[in-house]
Request: fold
Amino acid sequence: MQSTAEKNQIRKVIFASSVGTLIEWYDFYIFGSLAPIIASQFFPKTNPTAALLSTLATFAAGFIVRPFGALVFGRLGDMVGRKYTFLLTLILMGGSTFAIGLVPGYDSIGFAAPLIVLLLRLVQGLALGGEYGGAATYVAEHSPAERRGYYTSWIQTTATLGLLLSLGIILITRKSLAPNDADSIKAFEDWGWRIPFWFSVVLVGMSIYIRLKMHESPLFSKLKAEGKTSKNPIKESLMHKGNLKMVLLSLFGATMGQGVVWYTGQFYAQTFLETACKVDFEQTRTILIWAIIFATPLFIFFGNLSDKIGRKWIIMAGLFLAVISYRPIYTKMLAVASTNDVVLDESKTKIERVINPVNGKDHSIQTTTTVRLYQNGITEKLVHKDTLYANGLEKPQSLDKLSKELPDEGYWTMVVLIFVQIVFVTMVYGPIAAFLVEIFPTKIRYTSMSLPYHLGNGVFGGMTPFIAVLLGTLYAGDVLVGLWYPIAIAVVCLVIGTIYLSNKIDPEVND
Amino acid sequence: MNTIKKYLGLVWIALAVYSYSILLKTAIERMKLLPTTDTIIQWSIFAIIFLPIAIGFVMFGWMAFKGAYDHLPVASDQVED
Reply:
């Protein structure tokens, strides 16, 4: 039974760790959420070198650098200590995020702009790779055995809350830069996108202040006082057969499936809403925001439940439910946003045509906006842009953009469908920190648990939206073909986890 | 159960080799079909990043086949062996 003083102490530990980790996720996600604007500012498609850097910034930060960060900072955390290592990752993340908001655009400093942004993005990936393992380990090493799942589940909420915060800050900034929406969106795309990056420095400053007041993990302090810390944590994690087999089992029996379920529920779902269902920008974000708000308490619920019934079967149940329900859920999402065979209310169709000359150029842009209302309540907006040349000799260039606004019923059905997917995320992700912490010994815990976590989430999970979209282009006939990637990975993970993992809760992580 | 764990090890080895060969084949086909910077970089990164993971999966299968997962450690000294 914990005393009040002990409870207060663990609450402080959780708060200090969670706030910092949440901010790191916020910093990592705003780059992804603002990718199209960042690409137009720093990575013009007309310049092949800039396009190359853009691809590297997208892929390398998530897939290569994160696991590398797990090794670098994991090693540091196992040798120097948890507290100073995850303080360092926070400073690196906050500094690089703030700096991205300061870099002048490609138009001002040319090739240096994408190069600086790429380097800063790599630092972000590196810092993120080092952060999570430290925070999870730090909290777990302060927690009593019977509450480890519950306490570490607070750390598990941070990734989702970081996404929520990034979506919220972006939406608020996008709407508040001018009295009317159109001017505000224009200002946001011009310079206002930098504000969410600058805002990070306030959050990071607060978090550093809080973390500086914390003490080192008691288990690590004891180990250090006894001179038993590892001299080479990477070697001990990967070269000792007994530990390596657990690193591999953690990856293939838990984190790879957890990673794809997480990225499908929170990222692919967003991409799918926007690209396949054609739901408009704002509705897509608010649907996700509502679903996250409703589902987030379940991270704590499943973390707590894992203290009572074990971690394994909750994670496996989440994988199983995801496998059997992804295709029905996404089929329903398509149906909710569909206007096929729905009667069009012709009397409410509006067409508006505006011609804007382009300053200093010999052409103008004609924008034709057609708004149609269907009898199922969906409002469809088709924006068609033509480039009209003054000399009349060149062929006009056209560009179409279709978006749909869902009526209330369709909107809330989408919220429920995304919510269900995030429930699966809470099942696989809520207990995973406690699960990983209990597998590895204190002296190499930071390194050993960070690696399978970031391979599972960064590589298997992070690739979900890209591979799903790629499958869609390879097999264009099936809109749902992209789901086979997360389903296949989750099935393999489910089989391995069910057969090879133990459901036993380790009562003693002080070893 | 240990017999199932053992022989499934061979399945994991086969699955690792098969999956990676499919990935490599697709990567080469896509790069030949559309040799742009984006395509080459994307598929090269996929091929490179999944290579150590495929090797890890083969090792996992091999360890399972050799009975390394018949008994899971219950204390750290067993992990460090």
Observations:
- The longest helix of chain A spans residues 241-275.
- The two ends of chain A are 22 Å apart (CA to CA).
- The mean pLDDT of chain A is 87.
